[in-house]
Each structure stands twice: as C-alpha cells, then as structure tokens.
Amino acid sequence: MAESKSVIVTDKMQLADLCSKWNTLDALALDTEFIRTNTFYPKVGLLQVADTDSCYLIDPLGISDWSDFADLLVNQNVSIVLHSCSEDLGLLNTLLGVLPASLFDTQVAAAFLGLGFSLSYQALVSEVTGVVIPKGETRSDWLHRPLSNEQLLYAAADVRYLLEIHGFLKQSLEEKGFLNWFQSDCDLLIETAKTRDAEGLWDIYYKDISNAWRLNEKGLNYLQKLCYWREQIARQKNKPRSWIVKNTELFAISEHLSCSGELSVASLATAKHVDRRSLSRYGSAIIDTLQDETIQHAAIDSCMLNKPLSAGLRRKLKDCQKLVQEKAELLAIAPELLARKRQLIELVRTFNKHGQQNWPAELNSWRRAVLEPELQQIMTEGVE
Question: Helix, strand, or coil here: 166?
Fold first, then answer.
C-alpha cells in the first residue's frame, strides 16, 4: 500500500460504514495501542486497521457501541492479520467480548519460515519489504488527546505493511507445506485467549510464584488460596496484582503461617519480607481467606512447580533439547517454535512422576507427531 494520509474514525456511523466494506474482504490488518501501567485491565487508546486502500485510526474514546466491529471480527470469511497477537487478543476480549474467528499472526508465520522466533514487526517489515520503521512512539500516552502527528504516523505504520507481509508469508507457508500447522497454532492462540481469564485457571496461579516448591503441603495450600484471592481483588479494584500483594509477599506469608501454627493477624504481623502497608490494608482479609473452607480449590500439582531438576532429569532434558534442535533443523523452523525449554521441563517432570507423557495443549498437535516417537524413547531410558 502506498503511504497516504490515514482516515480518522471517531463515531459509530463512520465505523459501521467501514465495517460493511471490510466484511467483504478476505483479510484485514489490525493493531491496537493501549496503556496498562496502573490498572489490571488495559485502557485502549487506539485501534488501527488497514485494507488495500488505506489505513484507518479508530478513536475508541468517542465510540461506545462496538457491535459492528465485533460482528466483523467473528466473520470467519475475513482473516484478521495481527503481529504478536497475544496482548491484542486480550484487549479485544476485554473491549468487545469477542475474538477473531479467523486469525493470521505474522510473527508465528515468520517462525515457521525460519525468519526467527519472536521476530519484531520492524524486523519483519524490513525483511519482507525493505522499509525501515522507527520505534519512536512505543511508550506514548495513547489516552492523551489530541494525538500528535508523530503518534498518528507511528500508529498507521504498525498496520500499513501487514497485508503485503500477509500475502508473502501465506504463499511461503503454502509452498513449504506448513499452512495447516500454522493455522492450528493460530487457532490455539484464540482458544488460549478465550480461557486466559477463566476463573478455573486461578487455582494454578501458585505455579508462577518463585520458590513455591520450597513450601510444605500446608504452605502450598495457603499460597494457592492467596493467589486466588489476590486475583479476585485485583480484578475488582482494577489494579495490577503487585499493587495488591507482591509475589514475594505471598510466598513469605504462606511460608510464615504454615510454620507458625497460628492463623491470626497477630502472627501475620511478625512475618518477614512483607510490606507493613500490605498487612495494614489486607491483613484481616488474608486471614479470613485462609480460614475460609467454602471454596473448593483444585488439587495441588507438584509437577507445575519450578523445582530444580535432579541430575538424571537434567540429562533427559538436555537430550530432549537436542532432539528438538535436530528436528527443527530438518524442518528449517525456529527450534523454539517446536518446543520451548519450559514445555520440555514439564514433560520430563510429568513423565518422571506418572510414567507417561502428559502433553500440554500447546504441544499436543503437530508437534506431538513430530516429537513423540523419539521423545518416548528418551523418557523411558533409565527412568528414575
């Protein structure tokens, strides 16, 4: 698309007319700008769209009815082209309550084509088109009005080249025979975004706390309850999790109370490495949460904890990583696309505990077909 002045969209009627046009297209480029510094949920500042004619900058501060745009996203005939879409999908789900029915993530496509894993948009544009895009407005205040000319140019550039790149990448994926694998990964990104905020997942947030594996059984149960409680409060108050209670404090509280033998505010007040302000605000609520037996939580899964691997399991992990590297080289794709280290660690841990491979959703696809035979052999050799 030749560079031209972008169309500013500021009201529902203008947006509705454009959505009618976009619903007839095969593909549409999309990006978002938002701020998430002092809130749990992102504050949307701008939505950028590009078709083959122009770039469109949609000002969300003047639009309250998004029904036409939501209907566009769920149109399976229109492929929504994004780059590194995870945060954008989260924002769209929050703003609109829907996710794209058909997704094309150019960053994922680039990894399938051996252009690099987690390749930046600027690097991909340069690789495919030869155009150099500055990064100047990455940290801009997208809620301030009016937006500067520099912000508008930056925002438009984030979608201006996406459809051209989409065409190149899609053709290349077809030529290499990777289009079906790629599409299954994009479908998984959508499914993951749908469940990311599901309350049922709050029960496993303890796994993301450093050193959780050091806690005894009671401490782990406390930590699980506190992570669940903090998630509730952060969402209710629309504040970052760390503004409620930090991860290190959750660990310190769980460790202290599990060893003190007393669930009380007085005992909590003697805990080390806990901000007194946190205790002043939430001390009583923390004790009430830990004493509450009305909420049934999922069983603790020790395989999710980031406990250091034994020497034997480290050897297995190294063999698994070597296998992934070899398979990736044969396929000419980024090895991280095939399997990441944390995924392999989970496979090694679960096999060691249960005697069988428990494939996580992100690996239980084409990746499993590529890896399973040799991986099974590695796992069964000298089981600890």
Answer: helix
